[in-house]
Amino acid sequence: MGEYVDFKALKAVAAVGAVAARYGVELHRVNASHERGRCPLPSHPAGDEKESFSVNGEKQVWICHSAPCAKGREGKKGGDVIELVAAMERCTLREAGVKLGGWFSVAAQPPPAVEQPVGESEPAPLASRVEVAGDMAGNGYGIYAPLCVWIEGQLKSDSLEPFERISFERVLAKAKTLTKG
């Protein structure tokens, strides 16, 4: 699977202006939080010398105001420091995160342990969970039964946001569809 990338730590350490400078962008201050320069992105049209690339130092984001440049990136106008590296290197966000980690000495480490909520018991051993899943297979969800049973429990809650309820219902419908084939 590769090394873990802590995106939050990277964003805290890697300033978008510093990364833009690493790619040769000379930024000029526009106001207290914004700087401008020529766009370094590979999708930017050749010969366009306008200073269409902006960096907001307070929010740690960038944008290129050139429509042809955004079109070359499937309509994406800007993003954070990780998205800048991904666009420049034409790589995935994860690959960009690994690269940034090397540049800014953010050590790769294992993902943080998931803590068990207070008052809840440890999860059942895998063997017993598989048996339970087999017992629930008769409910039409097949191998997705444990997940679907959990989702059904969540749907009984009145505290769900509408988008959460819709998402859960779609997952249940998809699980039923997948187990029919």
Percent in strands: 5-15%
Gap between N and C termini, in Å? 30 Å
* CATH homologous superfamily (4th level) name of the largest domain: Zinc finger, CHC2-typedomain
The multimeric state of the shown protein is single chain
- What is the CATH-assigned architecture of the largest domain? Alpha-Beta Complex
Which blocks of ≥5 consecutive residues have pLDDT under 50? 126-137
Account of the 3D structure:
This protein is α+β, with helices and mostly antiparallel strands and 181 residues long. The protein has helices at residues 7-13, 16-22, 67-71, 81-89, 93-103, 126-136, 145-155, 162-180; strands at 28-29, 34-37, 53-56, 61-64, 78-79. A hairpin with a 4-residue loop joins strand 3 (53-56) and strand 4. The protein starts with 6 loop residues before the first helix and ends with a helix.
List its salient traits.
five-stranded antiparallel beta sheet; DNA Primase, Chain A; 2 domains; single chain; 8 helices; alpha+beta; 44% helix; 181 residues
Question: Secondary structure elements and their pairing?
Answer:
Elements: H1 7-13, H2 16-22, E1 28-29, E2 34-37, E3 53-56, E4 61-64, H3 67-71, E5 78-79, H4 81-89, H5 93-103, H6 126-136, H7 145-155, H8 162-180
Antiparallel strand pairs: 1-2, 2-3, 3-4, 4-5
Helix pairs in contact: 4-5, 7-8
Please provide a brief summary of the model.
The protein has helices at residues 7-13, 16-22, 67-71, 81-89, 93-103, 126-136, 145-155, 162-180, and strands at 28-29, 34-37, 53-56, 61-64, 78-79.
